[in-house]
Each structure stands twice: as C-alpha cells, then as structure tokens.
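Researcher: We plan to redesign the surface later, but first we want a full-length starting point. Tokens attached.
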C-alpha cells in the first residue's frame, strides 16, 4: 500500500470511471459545520501500489451549493480527518489570456483573493496563527497534475494566477479588464479560501483549472453565460477523469515528505496558557499535531 492518500475536490462525477476497490460513501462530521456532503473513499490500484483516494463534491450532490455558500472550512477539516496527505482541486475557470483557451487546463500557482464573506482561517481569537502563503500551491503535486493532463492527451499551462471572486455573479467587463491589468490569468469562485485553509491544515494543495470561457474582457464578444460553461465542462468531463486516473498512476511509489507537511510549525502565536480551549478542541484534526 502506498503512503499517498490523495484528496480530490471537484464535481460529483469526477470519480466516475476511476476503479476504486473497497469504495464506500461516508458521512464525516466537522466541528466547523456541515461539509458539502459525504466523502467517497477507496483504493486505486497503481503500478506503485494501491493509493487511497478520497473525493468530496465541493458543491454537493447535484451542485446544490453556490460558491459563496460552500463551507470551505468544514470541507478541508473533513478531508484532514480522513487522513488525506495531498489535496487536488479541480475547478472550472474563466480565461483572462488569449493563449489560455477553452478546453485547456491551467495548473494554477498563484492567487489574488477578492472574496469577502467567507471565513478565511481556522484560527482566530483565542488561538492566533499566521500561515506563510507566499507560494500557496505545492510545486510537486502541481507538476504531477500537469504531467497527468498531458498523459491524458490534454493541453495544460504550467502556472497561472487565479483571481478568486465572491460570485455567484460573473464579472462585469470593467472588472474583467481590471483583473487582466492586475496580472490575473484565470478567474474563478472557489480557489479561495480553499487554498488558504489547506495550508493551515498542512495539506499540500494543487489546483487544475478547466478553462470554460474567456470571461468578459473581449469587447467584441458576448459575456460569459452559465450555459456555455456547463457545455464546455460536459465536453471535457472525460479529460478530467482521465487526468485523475493518470495522476494516480504517475505517483512515485513512495511519498517523500513535503515542506507543507510542517508548514504551521512556527505559525502559532498565542501562548499556551492563553489559548481558547474550545477552539483548541475544534482544531483536533487541523492542528492536532501542534496542539496535542
């Protein structure tokens, strides 16, 4: 059995076609509230040994949750409780660059966070922590994911800055042009605070964005509409599943330690005698290694 345990956040159909042994759907409770739904977990046979895989549909079954109502803290907490070692997010994105065309994928490596209503941290009053986030994506996992896209026959851009907006509405043309001027390459609604929380949970995180549209910066074309996005996603569903299968097959036989595994080693600021015991208890999975 490999020591990899890959967590996957994406659409509810992403794991279809992945042959999982001992597959089961499990309800996992979180002290941070209800996650998006149950997890599906099992073992995938690979050349390097069986790999544990745990899926969570970010928007819930049937896409019942909008991006601004997803409980990101509960989702990350639940995956940590399941023993996930590395976390791959698969998301629909709009393109802010001509060369990043619909149907292609982007292995995101940076974020600009424009969300405003979502709890951005597991920590807070009574237990303050400051996580380093200069490089929010795990370079190793991101490279493996990009390799998997190519192995599956897809086109991938290695690196790109993701602008995370609150939603659920799409951008105005003025906003879309502004994000381009800021240096944004792609745009979406779920990357933050997901990446922040993964870092606080010491989970190496990578995001594969599936380009569905050109957002609204092309003045000579109609703005982005939901039905166009859904059509592109449906057309690329097989590529997404093939990419995930290729990622599992391409993992090294043994997982070497990642710097993210101990990213919070020196991040806790509050002195032990001043820590909120209730918050400490809620963080048993996320920060148990540091608080135990």
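Model: Full-length starting sequence:
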């Amino acid at each position: 059995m490999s020591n990899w345990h890959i967590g996957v956040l994406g659409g509810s159909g992403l794991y279809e076609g992945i042959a999982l042994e001992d597959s089961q759907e499990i309800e996992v409770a979180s002290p941070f509230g209800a996650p998006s739904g149950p997890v599906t977990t099992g073992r995938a046979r690979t050349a390097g040994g069986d790999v544990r895989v745990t899926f969570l549909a970010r928007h819930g079954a049937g896409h019942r949750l909008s991006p601004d109502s997803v409980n990101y803290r509960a989702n990350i907490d639940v995956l940590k409780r399941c023993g996930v070692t590395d976390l791959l997010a698969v998301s629909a994105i709009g393109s802010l660059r001509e060369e990043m065309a619909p149907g292609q994928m982007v292995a995101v490596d940076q974020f600009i966070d424009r969300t405003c209503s979502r709890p951005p941290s597991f920590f807070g009053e009574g237990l303050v922590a400051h996580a380093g986030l200069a490089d929010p994506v795990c370079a190793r996992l991101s490279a493996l994911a990009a390799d998997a896209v190519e192995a599956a026959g897809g086109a991938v851009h290695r690196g790109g800055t993701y602008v995370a907006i609150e939603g659920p509405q799409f951008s105005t043309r003025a906003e879309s042009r502004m994000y381009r001027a800021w240096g944004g390459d792609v745009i979406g609604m779920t990357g933050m605070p997901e990446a922040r929380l993964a870092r606080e949970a010491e989970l190496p995180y990578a995001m594969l964005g599936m380009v569905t549209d050109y957002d609204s910066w092309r003045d000579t074309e109609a703005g982005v509409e939901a039905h166009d996005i859904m059509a592109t996603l449906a057309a690329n569903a097989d590529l997404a599943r093939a990419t995930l299968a290729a990622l599992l097959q391409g993992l090294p036989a043994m997982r070497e330690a990642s710097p993210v595994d101990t990213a919070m080693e020196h991040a806790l600021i509050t002195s032990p005698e001043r820590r909120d015991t209730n918050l400490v208890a809620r963080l048993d999975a996320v920060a148990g290694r540091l608080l135990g």
